[in-house]
Amino acid sequence: MTIRRAKPRALVERPQALAHAQMAVRRAWAGGIEDMQQGWTGVFNPEAIIIHDLNGEPLFYEFSVMEGRTETGRVKAAASKLVGSPVVTIERGPRKWDPAKATKLALEAAKKAYPRREAKAQEFVCYCYPKIGVRVELAGEKPNSIIVDVADGTIVQSFGEEEIEGQTAYSFLESRTESGLEKKLRRYEELDREIEVARKHSKELFAEGYTARELVAVRSKLLLVSDYIFALYSSRVLKYGPRCSPHDCFALYAQQTNVYCAVATGQMILDFHRRPFSQDAIATAMGTGATGTSQAGQDAGYISLTNGCMDAAHDFSANWTEAKSEIDANRPLKSGIPGHARAVAGWKQQNFSLIGSTPKRWLQVYDPWPWNADICAGGAVYWEDWDAVNHTNWCFVRNRTDTH
Amino acid sequence: MIGRDEARAAAADTLSALLAAHDPLFAPWPEPEAGAPVMVEDLSGAPSYWLVPLEAKGRAIGAARVDERGHVMTIGLICRTPDRIEACPRVVTLLTAEEAEAAARSVLGPGETASPPRFVHDGPPGREAWLIETSRDARPARWITVTPGGATARPAGQRIGDDPGLE
Quick one: pLDDT at residue A2? Predict the structure, then answer.
């Protein structure tokens, strides 16, 4: 079994942990993080449950977020700077186990297993992250204590992180090397400075709660800008001259007829590569007919219009990583959805999500619809939720790298 | 399908988050507001999603598409710059039903009668247009779709995207 430490090495005081929890949740709400829009603007209960490491050091504070009498969510904040991150998890809904019942269950289990020994419940422990148990102290000979899982009341039997995965207990902190802990401590201290910046510039982050009227006014104040801030989103859009003084660079053109979506998309992409053509010229090269343009025709059109200097190829798997990589390489691409073509010139994704949910992702779409004979008068640019659309294909248009 | 108020609130929430995060797409428009949602139907007439205008200076400068569960599918701009505000549409449908009806009337053939315009997505969500269904001798004749670009007609029942190889 793991060693016991008499004194915590890098304790985070509860008010500081609460401030981190409030800041993480409220900034995510203010920043429009998808899963954080309902149930996260309530009051934080400052009376946290303390969860210890197996070595006895306080490891996490678990704070509840309350809307009236309803527990809408919970936040696990670090109680030790050696954890490295001030906020470890944010979970929706009420706690799935009851602390009082878990303690009672643990004592019953201990008395059943060791009927002649006096048992005393000591503390909640994280015995195999993220699993929680109750440590029960036993009087007399070894074992001195046992751990009982809070969810099912079973006694944890094996110890050591080298054991098979499952119900095995190991210390979250003692399983790390000294240099690893040193790095975590430095990281925590850096993120801790964020709180000081926030206290100066966004005091509203740490309010006990907000009225409905205050919520409307407070939103923009919660998104402070600081050198330390953890960005809620990552994004990238196409740039011109991405080296010294880049600027956003992609132009929207409307499709000139109701069937020229692929043609106008081609015009946007070719213009980006400094190869200007009229839509009629592109339509001719792509073999556009009365009802639209084939994908093979689009490929052939890109190649012929650039005298073979550019390659074009359709990809019918159309996954997120491919589109993101293309934008990261500073190239626009065509996005196909059933019966329609658009250009894509940017991506954005959440850096933050609730346990069990996928971070939201968006593409910046240059849609040539609605059509208009004046290419500067129609079309639209928007962020499109990646999961809201049936993506049928990409068309990658790239400079050829071989001699031809 | 969620109601009009919920759709507007969903769009307003997403818009306010984008503005609070200083999203560059909205940089030219510091204070747009979500307006009155318009229902977009599919070609068969079933409700499909809400189109919520983003309004500034009395114009529809952008739009959000909100699905039946209140999820914002897209949000962005129709008008990219306030420099020529007079060129920005007055309505998120770009044309009013009356304007669409008038445009359709100009392409009606002899003996062809037109139904009232419906605001639809002609193909995948995003390809919004006014649809006027015509009939001749009490039989479906043509579908006329109208956008600011003009009116185009095709045989009734012919759908965009039916041919998977064509875009």
Answer: 55
